[in-house]
4,4'-diaponeurosporenoate glycosyltransferase (Desulfosporosinus meridiei), 377 residues
Amino acid sequence: MNVLLLTIASVLALYGLISVVLWLRYMKTIRLFEVTDCLNDEAIYSKLSVIVPACNEEECIEQTVRQLITQDYQNLEIVIVNDRSTDNTGAILEKLLIQFPQLKVVTIYDLPSNWLGKNHAIDQGVKHATGEWLLLTDADVMFSPRSLKKTVSYALEHSLDHLTIVPDVFYGGVFYRAFLAYFGLTFFSIAMVTHKAGLGAFNLVKTSVYQEIGGYEAIALHPLDDMSFGKQIVEKGYKQGLACSGKGFIMVKWYESLFDILRGFEKNQFSSMNYRVSAVIGLCIYSLLTNVYPFAGLFFGPLSARILCGISVLSLFVAYNHLSKLMDISRGYFLLHPLSALLFLGAMLNSMVKIINRGGIKWRGTFYPLEVLKKHI
């Protein structure tokens, strides 16, 4: 038994050291956007169309629209897609249209077959857009002044076809933000390995590139639409950039609570594994070994194995320490890393079990059969 523990601890320690070195090197390429960043006011910017799908977003849609309207981006078009809302979203948009006639409001009453709601809303919004660049975002995202100019300027300067940005999540208590830190660490790790990324809060893309990859029609039934969109862009040979929002630059509340995170992840997690049970089982084993065992191994087994587990834990601390410089999180959240990992696995297993038992995904009042979703992986 001691030999087994020592072998596992040795492999994990080596894995941790190699991973953190590669991760730190990769993270040096991530651009951090700050509210205080300087900007060339004399630059000429291409026309930008912002597409905002909104389904029952009465609590946030007005604030989002007003923040977009007050941007100093001169050649700006804002397209709001009211996607079958049953609350006051439509009435709020009508009021805003009177005050801001430059707004474009597209209203969707029915969802066609073989489409997910948000994916279809974005597709319809783009059809009404006339900009050379598209910004696909969410109805609850808040933009600081000049953020659009700064991001478009960066994309042009670096000859990017697509820029996606990790937003500043401004909400949550200790356990919520500890999970956020774990999620951020996981997201950047996946981006490092795959060189592909996409985030619903901020997907800036050339309109020509959007059209050439088939737009959202190519991912009509992909629940993880933002990541699928980013993947399509890279696989078609276009240049992608990944950046991070500093405090207050591009903000989102994300979820109300950890319980809401579990519910929100319900439609996404199993789909990220291409609906394969074997992939979920493999992920669970991998995560338990790399994220949970090193912490537990500090307290049992031979001394040499404990020391090696300590090296693994120290590697994680180094990663959290660097992440805290990019995201508004505490490096101390690494102490809750194993708990966050278990919560993430719980969300994955919850997603898998519910989707299999239901025979599909039920989201915002619409049911999508699993057999249909699998055909569109």
